Amino acid sequence: MTDSGPTRKMTRAKLVVLGRDNCGKTAMCVRFLTKRFIGEYDHKKEVTYRCLKTIDKELIDLEILDTVNKCVGPAATSLESSIKWGDGFLIMYSVTDRGSFEAVSRLKRLIDHVKQTLGIPTVIVANKCDIEGGRLVRTEEGQALASDLKCSFFELSVADSSAAVEAAFAQLVREVRLEFHKHLLAMDKRSRMLQVRHALRNKLTRSKTMQW
Ligand SMILES: Nc1nc2c(ncn2[C@@H]2O[C@H](COP(=O)(O)OP(=O)(O)OP(=O)(O)O)[C@@H](O)[C@H]2O)c(=O)[nH]1
């Protein structure tokens, strides 16, 4: 997150897309960047995309990290560093893959653990709702999980809807902005308290001097 100076607008944000293999992370990122759905992606490495988007009439420079699934083993360290890097998180699962749904809570817990705080902007995305015949996770289960984890929730099909993908990313950016403004307010409050403390200390020093 970056402050643009006196206007105090958030001009940059770093987003991380997490989720089990094959749930549609790359498809989601590519859809958001290009509005297109490309069926197959040959990508087994982490990729960071950069783009300028206007969200709620404000321009924002986004870096989006498309992770590869690595919740276990030595690669988990790298997942932790990706989480440290991010300002906001999009956790995906596929409604056709129960395991990917079960991984969501673990990923959210990892984010909370790495960031050492709750309330980190996180959006949960249930993908592939176009494959109705192969559905293994009901919409209500996704909604209930998101509500338990206090995250926003979107069920969508990256294949079918570019607008739904935009809406999910826009919500994440909104939540990151909110967090940024909360952080600025906290900093302002702290600096006002320091000013008051400084003024009081000066006053005490002066009155002691006058006694002499
Ligand atoms: N039917 C359908 N297929 C989708 C959708 N989104 C992605 N896919 C397909 O699901 C497969 C996996 O998509 P990816 O975007 O590569 O998934 P990923 O999570 O990045 O996978 P990894 O790179 O293995 O972590 C591809 O064959 C996509 O075409 C969707 O909304 N509907």
From TrEMBL:
One of its GO terms (molecular function) is GTP binding. Keywords: GTP-binding, Hydrolase, Nucleotide-binding. SUPFAM superfamilies: P-loop containing nucleoside triphosphate hydrolases (SSF52540). InterPro entries: P-loop_NTPase, Ras-related_GTPase, Small_GTP-bd, Small_GTPase. It comes from the Eukaryota. Its EC number is 3.6.5.2. The keyword Hydrolase applies. Pfam families: Ras (PF00071). Signal peptide: none annotated. It catalyses: GTP + H2O = GDP + phosphate + H(+). Belongs to the small GTPase superfamily. Ras family. This is small monomeric GTPase.
